[in-house]
Amino acid sequence: MAKTIMIVDDSATLRQVVGIALKGAGYEVVEACDGKDALGKLDGRKIHLIVCDVNMPNMDGITFVKEMKAMAGYKFTPVIMLTTEAGEAKKQEGQMAGARAWVVKPFQPPQMLNAVSKLILP
Question: Response regulatory domain location, by residue (predicted)?
Fold first, then answer.
């Protein structure tokens, strides 16, 4: 059975680019346009990994990761932050919230797929 990855980004274009790369690698994809939308989609279904932007309206990525990690069913779901933020302070904030990897945009799909394959839950 295919593993499911959630993409959380306010850019529809970016969700599409990431989605194409992930689907091409055999993953199922769930899309959310911001942290609030993403939390609403964490409805008990199995999500094997989340790729999340940092800067979004309504709820930013770091707040989303903190709230998601507080949910029993998603506490151990790995998160890759995919963002234009390259600063150390933001990276540390993301790691403290529970993000496992940090990929800076613009990114190469193989680089992201490599991070996904290393972190995705069995």
Answer: 4-120
Mean of per-residue pLDDT scores for the chain: 95
Judge whether residue 122 has pLDDT over 90.
Answer: no
Domains in the chain and their CATH numbers? 4-119 (3.40.50.2300)
The answer to whether the CB of 122 falls within 8 A of the CB of 101 is no
User: What's the Cα-to-Cα distance from 86 to each of 30, 92, 102, 103, 112, rounded to whole Å?
Assistant: 26, 11, 9, 9, 16
